[in-house]
TrEMBL record:
Lineage: Bacteria, Bacillati, Actinomycetota, Actinomycetes, Pseudonocardiales
A Pfam family recorded for this sequence: adh_short_C2
Domain of life: Bacteria
Coiled-coil positions: none
Source organism per UniProt: Pseudonocardia abyssalis
Protein name: SDR family oxidoreductase
PROSITE patterns tied to this protein: ADH_SHORT
Length: 259
């Protein structure tokens, strides 16, 4: 029930980190995968690695599209080219996210907050609309939005980002209600995962950053990818509207540690 052979996926922001690990997981399970990112060199290198390491050397199962999630033209091209290449679009993973602001909200640049919500929330809805119109309305599908534990509990470090992820979690629930039963929509909420994106959150050292976690380590991209692979498979066929925490137990402690 976890096999994805014959299905096609679009994973945004997938040249590295969590997005790359998700693309690798879906390829390993048999899907064909489109990955997007803003930088073409990094994107093409990622696509070559994915094909060699996770698609059995079959480059035809990996499509790389240079795209900016905040661009309507990029979003449309990503979805259109995926359907043209693979003949379908069964899985959408909205992984792209930005976090340009930190700290006290009274000092935050409102333009940066607006950009954060536009990328983390509005662009996600835009991708869902496009996937719906291009394939899923008629054929069904599964959608996973990459949220954050910062969207589930307040923190003083990345509050604007947390607010955008809280909105994304609510958006996930609304979409699950409106798009069922043929389209399932879930979210995954990681804590700190060892990626370039989150490096500032463990800049003082992994041991210090991971000390509050019951599991005594930070997350790896594969920890999130494994859960996404399950959620988009038939093994999760009665799950929709859920936000699955992948957090090493940090929320169970009542705090967010360094987040």
């Amino acid at each position: 029930m976890t096999d994805l052979t014959g299905r096609a996926a679009l994973v945004t922001g997938a040249s590295r980190g969590i997005g790359y690990a998700i693309a690798a997981e879906l390829l390993t399970r048999g899907a064909s995968v489109t990955i997007t990112a803003r930088k073409p060199d990094e994107l093409n290198t990622a696509a070559e690695r994915l094909a060699a390491d996770h698609a059995g050397g079959d480059a035809g199962r990996v499509l790389a599209i240079t795209a900016n999630a905040s661009s309507a033209e990029s979003r449309e091209a990503s979805v259109t080219q995926t359907v043209e290449r693979f003949g379908r679009l069964d899985i959408l993973v909205n992984n792209t996210g930005i976090n340009p602001t930190y700290g006290f909200l009274m000092d935050v640049d409102l333009a940066a907050v607006s950009k954060t919500f536009d990328t983390n929330v509005v662009a996600t809805l835009a991708y869902v609309q496009l996937a719906y119109r291009a394939w899923m309305a008629e054929h069904g599908g599964t959608i996973v939005n990459i949220a954050s534990v910062a969207g589930l509990r307040s923190n003083g470090v990345i509050p604007a980002y947390g607010a955008s992820k809280a909105a994304l979690i609510r958006l996930t629930e609304e979409l699950a209600w409106q798009l069922g039963p043929s389209i399932r929509v879930n979210a995954v909420a990681p804590a700190v995962v060892k990626t370039k994106f989150a490096a500032a959150l463990y800049a003082e050292g992994e041991e210090k950053a991971s000390a509050p976690y019951p599991m005594k380590r930070l997350g790896e991209p594969e920890d999130v990818a494994n859960v996404v692979g399950f959620l988009v498979s038939d093994a999760a066929s009665w799950m929709t509207g859920e936000t699955v925490r992948v957090d090493g137990g940090i929320l169970a402690t009542g705090s967010l540690g360094s987040v």
